[in-house]
Amino acid sequence: MRVIRYKNSLTIVLSGGRILQTDECTDEMFEKIKQFQIEDNEFETINLLIPEAVDEYADNVRLIKFWEKEEESSELTKKGNSVYWKSVSSLSMPMEFAERVMNAEKNKNKDELEAYRNFWTLLSLNPDKAVRENLFKFLEKWGMVITKSGLFVGYRNADIYKKLDKYGDTVYTDHHSGTTRIMIGKMVTLDRAECDCDSSVECSRGLMCSPLRK
Question: Do residues 136 and 162 share a domain?
Fold first, then answer.
């Protein structure tokens, strides 16, 4: 990693030839960069200058590690810069998910492997690329469990809409809009056209955490 500074202008050339530049380099930033250079820590260098690129960098590191141990997996294969579950789908997999599949296979955890297989089978049917790429990361972040059938256990706030007598069932509704009708044991569906598929928008329209909207 090469580092060049002139006043507030900083240019960094990474080992792979990638160039990072900023015209807002402070003395404090430069001291951090020099330390990263000593440690040969390109990951933290990228994180400091362009944090939005860290996920891409991390995926490249994961892909390199996957190449090194691909022979350990009979389930997954690589093609170019992508990883596939060849017996399940022709779609490329998120690297975090591929790692979990390989670990389950290495540990001979058949139940976990079946859960991941069914999960990826269902997720591959979702036409939204962003969902396919980000759902597993979302589940990992919030500690949601993937069941053996490939579904996942999610939670949301609900209010009582109508409480029936002791022989009936309670009808619930979502806390945010109050427009849905929820009953234990019955599926809640919503037409895809009525959903906002932009995951960056909070409190919008859709079914919370649904991998397969109708």
Answer: no
